[in-house]
Write a structure and sequence with these properties.
The structure holds two protein chains of two kinds. Chain A is mainly β. Chain A is 0% helix and 50% strand. Classes of the chains: A mainly beta, B mainly beta.
């Protein structure tokens, strides 16, 4: 079956530090990959996505590249801000279907 | 703006009572909606797939008599937690896909409902 594994948190960084949250997946074929973010007290929001190998999704300074060879979709940001503090979920959706499979979520805490 | 509206955003109820959560697609018709549950410090868990005009499809381990799903129209799905108990306290989220968009377009999520059962 499909699965998504992401690094456990919490990840605690100082403002302006470099961020990497690892995500690897197991799936047949070529799924679409997503990063969702959940800010405190809010619902999930789509952060970025990639639909095929070597695609790079980017938004709000965050980037992730779809690596088929390593089955990874690591989330990166060059300089985090306190406002980036949230829980980040990596997810995949099979190329034939609607249902998302989520990773366990990684809590990011950015200190001023 | 939001394309999937979920209501209420939070609810507190007494043990033994039932609670209904609504999920509406605001500017598209969703034949399929999904209900997730988020346990504290854990990921989202898909509970069931709600299909307009037919019975919902429940994931293994989810009690269908406990979590009643009704998808009565193309823009509304409801989740009713029946005879709620404190262990049902959780964050429930619905999602839907706009069928006008490509198959690999992301799902739209509601803002979630935090249920607390006392």
């Amino acid at each position: 079956g499909n699965s998504v594994t992401q690094m456990e948190g919490p990840v605690t960084l100082s403002e302006e530090a470099f961020l990497t949250i690892n995500c690897t997946y197991t799936a047949t074929g070529y799924p679409s990959l997503f990063w969702y973010v959940q800010y405190p007290g809010e619902g999930l929001q789509l952060l970025l996505k990639a639909t095929k190998a070597d695609d790079k999704g980017s938004n709000k300074g965050f980037e992730a590249t779809y690596r088929k060879e390593t089955t990874s979709f690591h989330l990166e940001k060059g300089s985090v801000q306190v406002s980036d503090s949230a829980v980040y979920f990596c997810a995949l959706r099979p190329n034939a279907g609607n249902m998302l499979t989520f990773g366990g979520g990684t809590r990011l805490m950015v200190k001023p | 703006g939001a394309v999937v509206s979920q209501h209420p955003s939070w609810v507190i109820c007494k043990s033994g009572t039932s609670v209904k959560i609504e999920c509406r697609s605001l500017d598209f018709q969703a034949t399929t909606m999904f209900w997730y549950r988020q346990f504290p410090k854990q990921s989202l868990m898909l509970m069931a797939t709600s299909n307009e005009g037919s019975k919902a499809t429940y994931e293994q381990g989810v009690e269908k008599d406990k979590f009643l799903i009704n998808h009565a129209s193309l823009t509304l799905s409801t989740l009713t937690v029946t005879s709620a108990h404190p262990e049902d306290s959780s964050f429930y989220i619905c999602s839907a896909r706009d069928p006008r968009r490509s198959y690999n377009s992301p799902l739209h999520f509601g803002n979630g409902t935090r249920l607390t059962v006392t």
